[in-house]
Amino acid sequence: MVLDLDVVRDNYNAFARALPDTRVFYAVKANPSPEVLHLLATLGSCFDTASVVEIEMALAAGATSDRISFGNTIKKERDIARAFSLGIRLFAVDCVAEVDKIVRAAPGSKVFCRILCDGAGAEWPLSRKFGCVPEMAADVLEHAHRNGLEAYGVSFHVGSQQRNTEAWDQALASSAEIFRECAVRGMNLSMVNLGGGFPTKYLKEVPGVSRYGDSIFRALSKHFGNRLPETIIEPGRGMVGNAGLIESEVVLISKKSDNEDEVRWVYLDIGKFGGLAETMDESIRYPIRTRHDGDEMVPCVLAGPTCDSADVMYEKEPYMLPVSLSIGDKVLIEGAGAYTTTYSAVAFNGFPPLRSYVI
To answer: What is the mean pLDDT of residues 52-66?
Structure first.
């Protein structure tokens, strides 16, 4: 995988222009390359981290602790303590039990409560693993407040690769209601974490970042009036996705029978375990370029090289590839800068992890 830092720089500047009063917290998990983190730290980005290791990487890249959020709602207490010792004072929660850990391990810190969001319109919808129902958030934040933490705000995530620019509206309506309920209980919340979800271009066209910025600002004004909260965003895919591409080799092309209409199987030297995990359920469909583009196209099943039957990327909806594609041909997989190197297995079937080059 080769990643172009100039594209990352352009993406960061686009986010900064689209939402000028919103702080950018880059989601480190999307691509934690030291070069990417250093560039973003230099540009003034903050960082959303999911582990102590990611916190340490952001610090090593030049970020100060006040520019780092421990945004995972599922944390070991000893990891909270370690983050606190490194200066982190901003933590995500979604239940009382997680609040209690922070009370013990990071006293006096700021917490924001993540609420559930349906993710309609997203190509990679999120499950119910993270967040609580909006009606529960005020209780969680009040518990934090009564135990010496700062009830700081609310967060949500509208689903990854969200192509609906209006998806933030309902979540912001819920957030405003939580702000009002907390005010009644004596807590003045300050911040709304708008999460990620900003898409990168794969096979389908996606709206520009400015359209998301306009829509989000309208929704904020609609639900909060003139008393707009502080806001942060957590772009990951939208920051680095279109900055990277993967070169892969065709290992085998075959059919499962002699039937004339049998769909061809094309096996690449990369699959779900080599970095293309987001092809699960065929959610993310990567653009693929070949030297035969322009020739007659035929439907193909696309699979990876490992001895695992789950290592099939596209079968329910076969992928159109040139009929002239041959064993040994190189193909370029575009939009591969996010969630590829980090999803790559260490040594499944003995295949090495995906190499990464930053230019």
So the answer is: 98
- When pLDDT is cut at 50, 70 and 90, the band that residue 236 belongs to is very high
d(CA 175, CA 182): 11
Of 207-221, 286-300, 336-350, which range is least confident? Answer: 336-350
Q: Which amino acid is it at 242?
A: N
pLDDT average, residue stretch 128-148 = 96
Assess whether 200 and 263 both reside in one domain: no
Closest CA to 22 of 214, 158, 274, 161: 214
CA distance 164 to 183: 31
Active site residue 132: no
DSSP state of 356: -
Domain boundary residue among 192, 219, 235? 235
Residues 159, 293: Cα–Cα separation, whole Å: 33
Cβ pair 333, 290 in contact under 8 A: no
Can you give the pTM of this predicted structure?
0.95
> Can you tell me the distance from the alpha carbon of 162 to that of 125, in angstroms, rounded to the nearest whole number?
8
Active-site option among 113, 117, 300, 307: 307
We report the CATH number of the domain holding residue 156 as 3.20.20.10
Residue 3 to residue 8: CA distance in whole angstroms: 9
